[in-house]
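Predict the holo structure. Ligand: pyridoxal-5'-phosphate.
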Amino acid sequence: MDYPKVKRNVLLNPGPATTTDTVKYAQVVPDICPREKEFGQIMKEMGEDLVKIVHGDLNKYTAVLFTGSGTINIDACVSSLVPAGKKILILNNGAYSARGAEVAQYYHMDHINLKLPITEPIDVAKAEEAIKADPDIAVVYCCHHETGTGILNPIREIGAVAHKYDKTMVVDTTSTYAMIPIDMDKDNLDFIMASAQKGLMSMTGLSYVIGNTAKLEESKDYPTRSYYTNLYMQYDFIKNKGEMHFTPPVQTIYATRQAIKEYWEVGEQAKWERHQSLWEAIYKGLDRLGFQTIIPREMQSKLVVSVLYPNDPNFDFTTIHDYVYERGFTIYPGKVSDLPTFRLCALGTIVPKDVDDFFVCLEEGLKSMGVQVPVKY
Ligand SMILES: *Cc1c(COP(=O)(O)O)cnc(C)c1O
């Protein structure tokens, strides 16, 4: 392809992520109506790939695609998977699982919002206790990786408990899918969700739920609480018509087809190792500049690091953000309750050299602000 190179920005925010030029340019295609068979074929293959990425058996699992940001999946799963007279249990240990509870609240659904400490992974024993305590629970919901803090939750163990009591296990895997290896069966999952702009390193606007087909069929007669995000309706339409019910994000789908091709070329394990090497490069830089982090390393996803602001009157997040931003690096505010933190993330098509370059830039920026380096607490 002889398109010009696009200016490369190193995004250290928690998605959208840095993409390859080949993915960017995959969007440049002849105009097409998405109701054409040719486009339907692309969607069909994409749905199958999305299931295969999490080692799902195509006879058992299916992908349901939506036009929207990742939150559309939370909306769809929470609103569509709870039978009449039953409840959803939300294991809430951060901002993203809290969003699941908020959706339940907005749809006036009977739900249990089990608030757990946000600076540690979900305690499986507490989850089991809550499941046992209420026979009306039909669905157990949690987030794999709380992107706000960087905490990784033990979904395999939680899934095992959910299945022991015959509950449907729904997990928000938006910030781990296609980064940390996931296996639908081994990890005891029934429904997971993700969005093209995160682990797949594609464009925004395409989100998808991977679900157990038998359970999707069962949900046919569940109370309908939403129209646009009804999971069964979208599933049924894709199954019978081979297309999304409403207009798909056409260009993002082309980009995502290319991103999936690049995903298979790299391979699950090599990609996960690259993300981990970025995380190590982040810690190397933080340690060198004396920064402190919030979450113990062994509790982390290795995809997001929450960094504490230094205790220096000259430090100002916006100023340092703007300094590095003007030089091609994007950093992001934190989300660990009210603690003054910012986040550095290991998403996207970046390499450890990019992270090293970022820390050189960060050091210059801190010094130009008059912040003492190594930083002080
Ligand atoms: C990014 C993300 C989402 C989706 O957020 P949007 O802003 O709607 O794209 C959902 N869950 C998790 C865990 C995420 O990291």
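The mean pLDDT is 97. The chain is about 40% helix and 15% strand.
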